Amino acid sequence: MLEGKVLALSISKEKGVPKENILEVRVIENFGIEGDAHAGLWHRQVSFLDVYTLEWMKEIVGRPLAYGELAENVTTDVDLSQVKVGDLISAGECLFEVTQIGKKCHHGCAIFQRVGKCEMRNRGIFTKVLKGGILRVGDPVKILKRG
């Protein structure tokens, strides 16, 4: 499925701590989510993770994971396994470009220490904000394939 909705929005004021769930965020073009420590002038402004990864992780760590616990900003019910670098993600009134899939993870990272495993390194989707606006839990999400 390449259409779905935003299940959760999560931000943190500093890196390396669990993100807090909130009902709506202000997304700033070419910057990220207002108030989130990962926002800035770089290629990983907003991160996405699908609920299927969280369910898979539950089996591995032996407990449910909270939305935002793997440091994702946007949790969605869209299957992100089909997404490629360069694809666009439309969410609410915002538009994101996929810039990276997965990230280098070290065993000393805060997520790994808390959870024991981190799938952001394989399944996390990182994006740059092409169009900002307000994004709310429940807003529609659509993947726009390129090439």
What is the fold named in CATH at topology level? M1 Pyruvate Kinase, Domain 3
User: Helix and strand string, N-terminal first?
Assistant: EEEEEHEEEHHEEE
**What is the CA-atom radius of gyration, in angstroms?**
14 Å
Task: List segments where confidence is low: pLDDT < 50 over at least 5 consecutive residues.
Answer: none
Instruction: Identify the overall geometry.
Output: globular
Strand pairing plus helix content: what structural class?
Answer: mainly beta
How many helices? Answer: 3
Question: What is the mean pLDDT?
Answer: 88
Measured as a percent range, the helix fraction is: 10-25%
- The termini sit apart by 18 Å
Protein name: MOSC domain-containing protein
Domain MOSC: 20-144
InterPro entries: MoCF_Sase_C (IPR005302), MOSC_domain (IPR052716), Pyrv_Knase-like_insert_dom_sf (IPR011037)
Pfam families: MOSC
Describe what this molecule looks like in 3D.
By secondary structure, this protein is mainly beta. It has a single domain (3-144), classed as PK beta-barrel domain-like (M1 Pyruvate Kinase, Domain 3). 14% of the residues lie in helices and 37% in strands. The protein has helices at residues 51-61, 110-115, 120-123, and strands at residues 3-11, 20-22, 24-28, 32-33, 46-50, 74-76, 88-91, 94-101, 125-131, 133-136, 140-144. Strands 1-6-5-9-8-7-11 form a seven-stranded mixed beta barrel. A three-stranded antiparallel sheet has the order 4-3-10, with no helix packed on it. It is globular, with a radius of gyration of 14 Å. The two termini are 18 Å apart. The mean pLDDT is 88. Pfam families: MOSC. Residues 20-144 form the MOSC domain. This is MOSC domain-containing protein. InterPro entries: MoCF_Sase_C, MOSC_domain, Pyrv_Knase-like_insert_dom_sf. One of its GO terms (molecular function) is catalytic activity.
